[in-house]
User: Fold this.
Amino acid sequence: MIPSATEQFMPLAQDCKRPDEFLGIVLAFDAFGATTRELADGGVHYLVNEFWTSRQRQAHSIHEISYRACFKPQLPEFFISRLTRPGEGVYDPFMGRGTTAVQAALQNRRSMGNDVNPLSLLLTRPRLAAPPIEKIEARLRGIPWKKGEIVREDLLAFYHESTLRQICSLRAYLLEHAPLNEHPDPIDDWVRMVALNRLTGHSPGFFSVYSLPPNQAVSVDAQRKINERRNQSPPPRDVAALILKKSRALLADKAPIPRNDALLGTGDAWNTPYIGDRSVQLIVTSPPFLDVVQYSADNWLRNWFAGIDDRCVQISTHRSEMEWMEMVRACFVEFARILAPGGHVAFEVGEVRGGKVLLERLVWRAIEGLPFERLFVLVNEQQFTKTSNCWGVSNNSKGTNTNRILLARRI
Ligand SMILES: C[S@@+](CC[C@H](N)C(=O)[O-])C[C@H]1O[C@@H](n2cnc3c(N)ncnc32)[C@H](O)[C@@H]1O
Assistant:
């Protein structure tokens, strides 16, 4: 249940009205040339530029796991570099694959993250305490690969029988040795994270026969149709070898130095009592965009492998704009509690409904009266969408190639 929006912060409400009020920040954000500044209806300030796409540095290899609607590491890196110092808390309440948490660790900040789906924890935690490759290799050798029974025959649509036997063996081993609610051994945790990422995909680097990209598991029926259409059947794969290969790739740029103060949790973004008051300096996040992405449908196979019961995961989807705004406001009420004064929220939204719904404007309105200065909406436009109108109709119908980030400062 989303709590009703509280009015307790009303007297402190104060919004940024003139562009020059945030000129200091704007200058610090002029990464790749002049930024266009625009004032749109409703007093929303837009800053448009190619802030990090062009000439961007290659992201660190440890980010390279797929997740639906994840953002690029360059996005949190941009804000972390400019708005925090080493050791400060950087938090993502909708952490997904953990892009913000992992980037924070790479920049020696305190990683903090939350997601309603426990899968997110399983994808993020191991990369904050990555084991050396030799230990991963040794652990893979010790797993009883032939012991497991095939517990779901329907998965033969994706896997050769010998591959499915290895997957079931690994799953049984992990459920026994690294149960979900206990603190796992970091090597088992790592092996599970990599296996989750190799379950299905469109190349021989995955356990499955050709399927959709790994962040969108298709249903068994849909996979049977793909097999028919492509006249394919699942080839045998060496699961341990594929996990080792991917581990080497993830660790190619070396892992972040482990810090013992990372804080990750599972729950609704608006209710995070495990996070201390004023303990966060920066929030970089991207919430579900209305009902655009079906995270549960995309993650069913990963959840099965990890032993997560889909029915217990209440992923938020919102049909109406009003419902979505209530959710956003409830989140910002919680953000006001956990942010240090002067701390920032970088809240990324996508273009939805063919550009007809401007989510950043809904956020701008939703947080009115809360103790935040709404600084501006930063639009990172890629070269090929430069001609599109940043607050009008875009050339994308679902999701987006631009990032729109509302930046707000805790008063
Ligand atoms: C757009 S994705 C975030 C992706 C993330 N920025 C990344 O780079 O991986 C939105 C996330 O919100 C999570 N989510 C949905 N409802 C939630 C809720 N009520 N509280 C917390 N997380 C939620 C979904 O599980 C999904 O991982």
Observations:
- The CA atoms of residues 117 and 313 lie 6 Å apart.
- Confidence is low (pLDDT under 50) at residues 1-21, 384-400.
- Residues 67, 69-71, 93-97, 99, 115-117, 120, 268-269, 286-288, 295, 315-316 surround S-adenosylmethionine (CB under 6 Å).
- The longest helix spans residues 321-338.
